[in-house]
Write a structure and sequence with these properties.
single chain; alpha+beta; Beta Polymerase, domain 2; Four Helix Bundle (Hemerythrin (Met), subunit A); 2 domains; six-stranded mixed β-sheet; 6 strands; 51% helix
Length: 288
């Protein structure tokens, strides 16, 4: 019942947007992307609504929020960079905690935009056309095969792999030093933020070499595609805002990173920078 209620409320916002867009000369085309725009993965009650607007005047939608009054009551709105090329989106939290993202692109740049790999890849996953006054989407097909990178393309070169590993080990010491100085916030950010970003990339590479195909970016649905051993270890790798617990999480993060990195290096036939690991680990073990 909850999913149906949420869907109906999002549908109401969509209907009001279509009415507004059809009456506005500034909206030339609009499509729904994400889970509410495709059929392979059904939207659930937590899914948001993602609308891409192709506008006559991009700034009109980004510089003011007055046009949102046509769509319903909302609690807040702000701007954010999007993962789709060099664009911004207006994020809106409508009444009832309904979150809607409006990415705004120039309709005049559509020919250039549609050749962008990120945009084609996004649209290839599925979309629903809401408005298309100029027929921009006529006779266009974005296929997954055409836009997807091969698994080989998603894997690092030897130098990329080597650089990430050394970056990780460097920042184990950096985080530990901040902790010893008493900078708890910075140390925790290093352990649970920066180091985890490098760990996540290695987890992605590890999943690829182990044959996993449906890998999502930014850790989306990680629990469904990462190695079960990774999931088991991750719960031990995050810390409370407390010195001793940050030390514990740092050590556990180092252990997890080490074993998955070695498995990746073995699968790819890359050398593992063991000297960096050993020197940094020895220092941390001695000090922490």
């Amino acid at each position: 019942m909850m999913i149906k209620d949420k869907t109906e409320k999002y549908d109401s916002i969509t209907d009001r947007f279509i009415k507004f867009g059809e009456e506005s000369d500034h909206v030339r085309s609009a499509v729904v992307i994400g889970s509410r725009g495709r059929e392979d993965i059904e939207a659930d009650e937590w899914s948001d609504l993602d609308i891409v607007i192709f506008a006559e005047d991009v700034d009109l939608f980004l510089s003011n929020e007055g046009w949102l009054e046509n769509l319903g009551e909302y609690w807040l709105t702000f701007l954010e960079d999007t993962p789709i090329g060099d664009t911004k989106e207006r994020r809106v939290l409508f009444e009832g905690a309904l979150d809607v993202d409006f990415a705004v692109l120039s309709s005049g740049d559509f020919d250039k935009v549609k050749e962008n790999h990120e945009i084609r890849s996004t649209l290839s996953k599925g979309y629903k056309v809401l408005i298309d006054k100029d027929g921009l989407f006529d006779d266009i097909e974005f296929t997954q095969d055409e836009t997807s990178r091969s698994e080989e393309d998603k894997l690092p070169s030897q130098s990329e792999f080597d650089n990430l590993v050394k970056d990780f080990w460097y920042h184990t010491l950096w985080s530990a030093k901040k902790l010893f100085r008493g900078e708890i916030w910075i140390a925790k950010s290093g352990v649970d933020g920066y180091l985890k970003s490098k760990l996540l990339r290695m987890i992605e590479w590890h999943a690829i070499v182990k044959g996993e195909e449906d890998i999502r970016e930014e850790g989306r649905f990680l629990e469904s595609w990462a190695d079960h051993r990774v999931i088991d270890d991750l719960e031990k790798c995050f810390s409370h805002y407390e010195e001793e617990d940050i030390k514990r999480a740092l050590k556990k993060t180092m252990e997890l990173f080490r074993w998955i990195t070695k498995e990746v290096s073995d699968e790819l036939g890359y050398g593992y920078p063991s000297n960096a690991d050993e020197r940094c680990t020895e220092w941390v073990e001695e000090k922490v």
